[in-house]
Task: inverse folding
């Protein structure tokens, strides 16, 4: 059991038989422990990988950008998100939607910044109290939600734009989305390379975040058939908003790695993730390189950008017969891979 979940359980006696909504639960058995004795526990997560984990562990959960509040919850338990602006957005949504007599618990690790959260809680609640400190974590309770400002997700959008194929691509991103409100420098290097390579046909933007890579490619080729895949509900919601803003169409794929991908693509483009949850982890990228070949059409290509110090080129060479380094600007490498090596268990 994670430290933050242990702190919740240390305080379980305060919950009596109340119904709970747990937001962004960790991948552990907390929900099962809280459900004992018939307590009603709902789970809401913005992370599709956590959603899949919870489902596999036998807990029903909702995958959603903003937790649905039904009004009957007596306690909302929030795991501290990594990004402060995502915390503020969540607290606003919850304070605006919850019953005036309900309470919110915010739990998180010291190293994730839980000690600085009271000031954010005080912006949305009349009463804030430290309930417990243990296992390098702290648990705060907030009561008396202030409801002067109704919650609108659009209030948290950041608008930015870039030039792609001589046109303006207007982006809208939400808190918690990678490079919120700006173009990442590694992504920019990839966009320059793709402007020369000109992806066409069926294109998958893997770990798409705001969707900027796929959408920029679409401005250059209106016939391109785009799929945008990410594990973050906020990323996919940002994509939905940017597509609408630019009158573009694409398939949105919530997925943990390639687990929900289907069919074959002429191009897979990506700036792959280098963390899982709050921890640095190259596992998602490694799994992606291992699986990606099975989703390529004949002569299909993968193009990725990554920090030069990462071992991705060797990993790609294990999986693909043709691997070319295209560029290495500003500490980044661009690599194109094609012709997946035959593997046992490859899809027909
Ligand atoms: C480095 S960002 C790139 C975002 C975007 N392509 C860009 O360049 O701005 C990596 C993305 O991977 C997503 N991600 C992390 N873990 C994932 C997983 N298991 N499956 C799918 N996407 C994941 C994150 O939500 C994030 O949007």
Result:
């Amino acid at each position: 059991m994670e430290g933050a979940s242990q702190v919740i359980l240390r305080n379980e006696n305060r919950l009596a038989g109340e119904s709970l909504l747990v937001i962004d639960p960790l991948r552990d058995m907390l929900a099962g422990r809280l459900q004992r004795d018939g307590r009603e526990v709902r789970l809401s997560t913005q992370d599709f990988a956590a959603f899949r984990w919870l489902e596999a562990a036998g807990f029903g959960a909702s995958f959603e950008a903003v937790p649905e509040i039904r009004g009957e919850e007596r306690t909302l338990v929030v795991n501290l998100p990594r990004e402060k602006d995502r915390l503020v957005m969540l607290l606003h949504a919850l304070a605006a939607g919850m019953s005036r007599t309900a309470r919110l618990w915010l739990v998180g690790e010291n190293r994730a910044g839980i000690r600085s959260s009271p000031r954010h809680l005080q912006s949305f609640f009349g009463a804030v109290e430290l309930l417990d400190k243990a296992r390098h974590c702290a648990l705060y309770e907030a009561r008396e939600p202030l409801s002067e400002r109704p919650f609108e997700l659009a209030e948290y959008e950041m608008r930015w734009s870039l030039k792609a194929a001589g046109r303006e691509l207007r982006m809208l991103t939400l808190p918690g989305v990678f490079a919120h409100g700006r173009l990442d420098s590694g992504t920019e290097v990839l966009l320059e390379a793709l402007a020369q390579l000109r992806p066409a046909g069926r294109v998958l933007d893997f770990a798409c975040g705001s969707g900027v890579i796929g959408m920029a490619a679409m401005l250059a080729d209106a016939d391109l058939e785009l799929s945008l895949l990410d594990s973050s509900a906020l990323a996919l919601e940002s994509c939905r908003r940017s597509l609408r803003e630019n009158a573009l169409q694409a398939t949105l794929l919530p997925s943990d790695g390639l687990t929900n991908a289907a069919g074959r693509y002429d191009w897979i483009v990506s700036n792959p993730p280098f963390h899982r949850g709050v921890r640095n982890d190259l596992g998602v990228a490694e799994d992606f390189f291992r699986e990606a070949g099975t989703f390529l059409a004949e002569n299909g290509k993968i193009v990725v950008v990554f920090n030069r110090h990462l071992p991705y080129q060797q990993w790609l060479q294990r999986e693909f017969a043709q691997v070319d380094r295209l560029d290495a600007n500003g500490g980044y490498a661009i690599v194109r891979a094609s012709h997946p090596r035959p593997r046992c268990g490859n899809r027909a």
